User: What shape does this take?
Amino acid sequence: MESLGQFEQIVLTAILALDDNAYGVTIHAKVEELTHPKKTARGAVYATLDRMEDKSLISSWLSEPTKERGGRSRRHYRLEKSGEKALKESARTAQRLIETITRGLGGLAWKPR
Amino acid sequence: MEAALNGPPEWLERMVLFAIPPAAREGVAGDLWETYQNPGQYAVEALRTVPFVVWSQIRRNLNLPALILQSALIFLCCGGPTTLLALPVLMLREAYRPITRPSPRRAIREAILLSCGAMVLLLQIMSIHSPFPVRTGVDPFTWLSLFLAALFLSPFLCLFRAGMIMQSDRCLPLSASDLPKDTLADSYERFLRGAFCRNILEGVALSFAAVSGFFFAWNALLIGLFVLAAIYLLLDAVPRPAPACDFVSLRARYQHDLARQGQLRRFLHWLWFAPVLMVLHTRLVSGDTSPVPLDSMVLASLNFVAFAILCFLLAALNREHGGRVQEQIGLLDRMRETSPPDRALT
Assistant: This one.
């Protein structure tokens, strides 16, 4: 199975959270929210989206053109089955990491923010 | 939203549009417009975004085997420094690959320009080496051949290019903007079957070409490339049914396979032309002996014309085919699912 990099996990999570409203601007906003306080270049999000589309983790299509975008279409994104699977696997790994770190740093005294 | 409706100045937008690769232009330019606040912010955001988009498009469209083959041909013809200069240009050309076929007018104009250039060269040779009165140049038969070549080159190239355009018009399998899922699945299935047959046939043809290459004393590297390409095509040609999935996933797979087959064809076009280009290049640099008594300058000019025409034909083939693939991918991008027609009523 395709293993994901950290930024890919974040972008996939953003698409998952945005559901039908996942396109460049909203994905970038969600990614910034998830990586707060770190800033992210929108171009990096586009590059990651392209890479994940090539890996068939996500699929994209163009919407109808809208006036607030100067008559241009939105490129919408959606998770594919393989993307969902990869994200679940990443979440399981993250869960194991959190459990191990929590145990190592003194049980319930430490919690991830 | 208020700010977004007041878009960037037209000149600035035009510059940004020019910088964004065509394949990503619609989505990225729209996003930049949507987040527009003022010209400064727009320019800074574009400057921060475009390099990533260009790099991503280079990575996406880069046809590494074709690039290696092109670089090798440039290296053989023009040497190392030119190859080093040409490499970034070739890579950027991949990023800015147009998403449509060239317009017929432009295609014909290019054919006319090339033939005019070739004609000027041929007429120059004819005037220098005129057989009337007989000088130390070409014989009257060769002179007449040059005259006829110059005369018919333009109509030939224009006809060839027009034929290519008409063939591409016929080959577009998708025409409707909205389709039911079953129709899309049928179209995808047809495409997969076509790709399978074409790959088998081309794999066999490449094997034959590689074998005959031994007898024609081709470059060993070239024979090796033909063998590798044949093995790849024959191994890759596995009949696959269209997967059972929803409209969006099916469309994504169709686009993915279209792009992949497009890349494969582009490399194969270059591969098929490579032996001829190499022979012409060898003749150009070595002034090969010819059955017709021509001096080396005339021979070099003729070989140069042949080389240029061959490159033109190859580029035209790739642009027509690549443009057709990009048009189909774009068409799929905008396609919506419609409910299938009620067969009981029809």
